Amino acid sequence: MSRRAFYWLLIVLLTAAGYWFFTRRHFMADRPTRGGTIVAFGDSLTEGVGATSGHDYVSVLARRIGMPIINAGRSGDTTATALGRLESDVLDKNPKIVILFLGGNDAIRSRPVAETFANLKDMIEMIHRHGSAVMLIGIHVGLSASTYDTNFADLAEREKTSFVPNILGGILGHDNLMSDGIHPDDQGYRIVADRIEPILMEMLK
């Protein structure tokens, strides 16, 4: 084998190994032990700000999987305000799976990173105590973006949740996928749904 061929083979093998590692972590499936509904819990990105009617990621996912998904997104929510309504807006709905998509407003408002992830941890533990599974959605925004990446991944691993990292990667900052500087448009939300769907289907098995 020539040296050039060897290097190409090495690149292919390393790429495959990296993809395998990424998808293994990406597709780690939290399993519910009870519940009958799916709830998407978050802020304006879950509520669907920037999308036309029926094109937010929650509606797109519901059509694709053929199951209703309760949209419990509320514009402006931080992890602290969301924690305050978790019981009434999520746990009282008897969910089997909760899509947890929060943290963006904390970053925008420069809330302490430790506080943000303590709130997320509390929410995950409450959901797990209920017998429901969690899909944690990671975001990469603000001045603490790299710190957020690490904390999201570590939290998902510690709490054994399903995990989608950097959900807005390749969307945020691309005008053709955004309705404004923060929220995706219909096409952007469709990509968000693309990234969540395979993990959700794995959790439903």
UniProtKB/TrEMBL annotation:
GO terms for molecular function: phosphatidylcholine lysophospholipase activity. The keyword Transmembrane helix applies. InterPro entries: Ester_Hydrolysis_Enzymes (IPR051532), SGNH_hydro (IPR013830), SGNH_hydro_sf (IPR036514). The chain crosses the membrane at residues 6-22. Keywords: Membrane, Transmembrane, Transmembrane helix. Residues 40-191 form the SGNH hydrolase-type esterase domain. The keyword Kinase does not apply. PANTHER family: SGNH HYDROLASE-TYPE ESTERASE DOMAIN-CONTAINING PROTEIN (PTHR30383:SF5), THIOESTERASE 1/PROTEASE 1/LYSOPHOSPHOLIPASE L1 (PTHR30383). This is SGNH hydrolase-type esterase domain-containing protein. The lineage of its organism: Bacteria, Candidatus Sungiibacteriota.
